[in-house]
Design a protein that fits this description.
The chain has a domain of about 200 residues. It is built from 16 helices and five strands. A three-stranded antiparallel sheet has the order 3-5-4. Strands 1-2 form a two-stranded antiparallel sheet. Strand 1 and strand 2 form a beta hairpin. The longest helix has 28 residues. The N and C termini lie far apart (about 70 Å). InterPro entries: PCI_dom, SAC3/GANP/THP3, SAC3/GANP/THP3_conserved. Pfam families: SAC3_GANP.
């Protein structure tokens, strides 16, 4: 007699079916990203223990993408755009649109004067061209209502993405304007990839580029928020972090779809490390399962990589308040993308260092500002400004040297946040 699989703790995987009868794989995001629980249990595990697990039955088998880059299951279960940005209730499309924007959309937006500053031909708000217009993102869309002529194939999407990313350096517009335009149009690119179920290695390359865009935007927007449009920029920064989390989630799923056993992709260690670094923020957009459980899904070769070792070291130093090793490690080992994520935490760690020195120092022996600036890895003039921002006064000794008197009771973190201070990396020329 055949046993009921529901007994003895065995439960079938949850699934649902659409009206067309096709199985829809549940969204995996709720089981993917970490919460703010303690992560100390993960640091004491070695790489083999992280990797000694069977593949989850939710994950598709390695190499499951077809030769044309499409998921044979008919759905891109891990891509957030499959759930949020297309209905996924009919088989995937094959796009035929040869331009960055479908002709019908260009005509409609010309008529409605709905052209971004980058899309206007000779500055005319009512005129554009196929070389300027880029398809906008549409939240409510169903693949059964979309024509193939309105969907861009992979080659056009690749060229469109390269065109958009080139605007970051070549445009004369404020970065906030550039960001908002690229932000919307890259979502449209992900939407077209989703509707066509394109999940091959070219899709991985595109998602890596889009993650870079959101990381660099995180770096630039956090300092733009000090300007006159503070509320608008703060909103853009928040939305950017949301899309960074979604794009990273999709990228990790693509890694798994194209995984060859016991291997990792060339850029995977760095992009996996960004996830760990985002967990430094207690308001991180990466929310879900604990980081210790998340590590179990990461290949052992990635766990052992220098990028992941760096991220785990920095996270440990941040949690335990080891400000000196935190700053030294960031200065010596952080890549540009890693630094962009960590930059917002550097002044927080500096404030901790100043607080410790102020509270633990001997009142009759002030702390040299020159030594403090070296410890904080900033110019001496900026170190003085930083101390003043924390409510501390700087004095001058009999030899004309600037000193930080300790045991001051006025220390406080600035409510409006820290300014834009530099970060000196001795011996490095790539920062």
């Amino acid at each position: 007699m055949e046993r009921d699989p529901r007994r003895r703790g065995h439960r079938p995987l949850p699934s649902s079916s659409s009206s067309s009868g096709r199985t829809v794989i549940p969204d995996s995001r709720s089981n993917f990203v970490p919460s703010r629980r303690s992560h100390g249990e993960a640091w004491n595990r070695n790489a083999s223990s992280f990797h000694s697990r069977g593949r989850s039955s939710r994950n598709p088998p390695p190499g499951s993408a077809n030769s044309d880059g499409r998921d044979p299951s008919g759905t891109v279960s891990g891509l957030e755009e499959a759930a949020e940005e297309s209905s996924g209730d009919v088989p995937s499309l094959v796009g035929t649109c040869p331009f960055m924007c479908p002709a019908s959309e260009m005509a409609q937006r010309e008529r409605l004067r709905d052209l971004a500053v980058f899309e206007r031909l000779h500055g005319n708000p009512k005129k554009t061209s196929p070389d300027l217009a880029v398809k906008k993102f549409c939240r409510t869309i169903s693949t059964k209502d979309v024509k193939s002529s309105d969907v861009r194939p992979l080659s056009v999407l690749e060229n469109t993405l390269d065109y958009l990313l080139n605007l970051m350096d070549s445009s004369g517009e404020p970065f906030e304007v550039v960001h908002d335009f690229i932000f919307d149009r890259t979502r449209s690119i992900r939407q077209d990839l989703s509707m066509q179920n394109i999940v091959d290695r070219k899709a991985i390359s595109m998602f890596e580029k889009m993650v870079k865009f959101h990381v660099i935007s995180h770096h630039k927007l956090q300092f733009s928020s000090e300007g006159t449009h503070h509320l608008e920029v703060s909103s853009s920064h928040h939305l950017n972090m949301e899309q960074l989390a979604k794009t990273l989630t999709s990228l990790y799923h693509l890694y798994e779809l194209n995984r060859v056993p016991d291997s990792a992709f060339e850029n995977e260690p760095e992009f996996r490390s960004l996830y760990v670094l985002l967990c430094l923020n207690y308001e991180s957009p990466m929310k879900g399962e604990s980081l210790a459980l998340w590590f179990r899904h990461v290949p052992a070769s990635v766990i052992r990589s220098k990028e992941m070792i760096f991220a785990r070291t920095v996270l440990r130093c941040f949690r335990f308040g080891n400000y000196k090793r935190f700053l030294d490690t960031v200065a010596a080992e952080a890549s540009f993308l890693q630094f962009c994520i960590l930059e917002s935490h550097i002044n927080e760690v500096r404030a901790l260092a100043v607080s410790c020195i102020n509270s633990s120092g001997y009142k009759l022996h002030p702390f040299s500002l020159a030594n403090l600036s070296s410890l904080l890895m900033m110019k001496e003039s900026e170190a003085e400004s930083f101390c003043n921002a924390c409510g501390l006064e700087i004095s001058i000794d009999n030899h004309g040297n600037k000193m930080l008197p300790t045991k001051q009771s006025t220390f406080s973190r600035p409510k409006a946040g820290f300014g834009n201070y530099g970060f000196l990396c001795p011996g490095r020329t790539d920062k």
